[in-house]
Specification:
The chain is mainly alpha-helical. The protein is 71% helix and 6% strand. Helix 2 runs antiparallel to helix 3.
């Protein structure tokens, strides 16, 4: 069974590329780059295409590596679950402390695996934007009123990341704690996060469509 469907891959790819598209705006003078300082500088269409192609390769490599990362995460989880108790017995740790210790170990292993991959991936984004900033630094800003640009962020998309992270945490702690942990706390209402995440996802798409090209006259 495939780890991820083509639809899911396309949704991830689309969301990441829309983040790249928010770095640029269409003006009457052609495409322009929105710098971190908020000012806009002209760029050539072939430059944007080259930067986008480089980023597409970065995104595709990330998506292709997701199954391998998942296997490492699952392998670490199984190792902790099946070997953690034996290790704790060898170390002479009291039996009533085994559950919390294994739960903490699972969190460290899973969070560490995800954190390392995220750090590497975000570093790739940052390095590419730094290169674009350096390439346009010497160009004069275009006479575009910054108030017409609005924010270069899509807060709906940020909300998707926050809610998705909460869903992952709920799933992780639910797996570690079992049914008793879920039934003993207000966990069930958190499953409402799933439709909220989908709503934010489509709102993020709508936001980018609405703002794209609005400076062109």
């Amino acid at each position: 069974m495939a780890f991820m469907s083509d639809y899911q891959k396309n949704q991830i790819r689309d969301g990441e590329l829309r983040r790249f598209d928010r770095w640029f705006v269409d003006t009457a003078m052609g495409p322009a780059y929105r710098g971190r300082d908020g000012r806009v500088r002209g760029v050539r269409a072939e430059e944007v295409a080259r930067w986008r192609a480089d980023l597409e390769a970065h995104i595709d490599a990330m998506i292709a590596g997701l199954p391998v990362q998942a296997m490492w995460a699952i392998g670490g989880l199984l190792a902790v679950v099946f070997l953690g108790g034996r290790l704790l017995d060898t170390l002479g740790i009291a039996q009533h402390l085994h559950g919390p210790a294994i739960g903490l170990a699972i969190f460290i292993v899973e969070a560490g695996t995800v954190g390392l991959e995220t750090w590497d991936y975000v570093g790739g984004w940052r390095g590419r934007r730094d290169a674009i900033e350096a390439a346009v630094a010497a160009r004069a800003p275009l006479p575009v009123d910054p108030q017409n640009l609005g924010s270069g962020h899509n807060w709906y998309q940020t909300g998707v990341y926050v809610v998705a992270g909460l869903i992952i945490l709920v799933a992780l702690f639910g797996h570690v704690g079992g049914d008793a942990m879920i039934e003993s706390g207000p966990w069930m209402w958190l499953f409402l996060l799933v439709p909220i995440a989908w709503g934010l996802h489509f709102a993020a798409k709508w936001h980018d469509r609405r703002t794209k090209g609005r400076l062109r006259r």
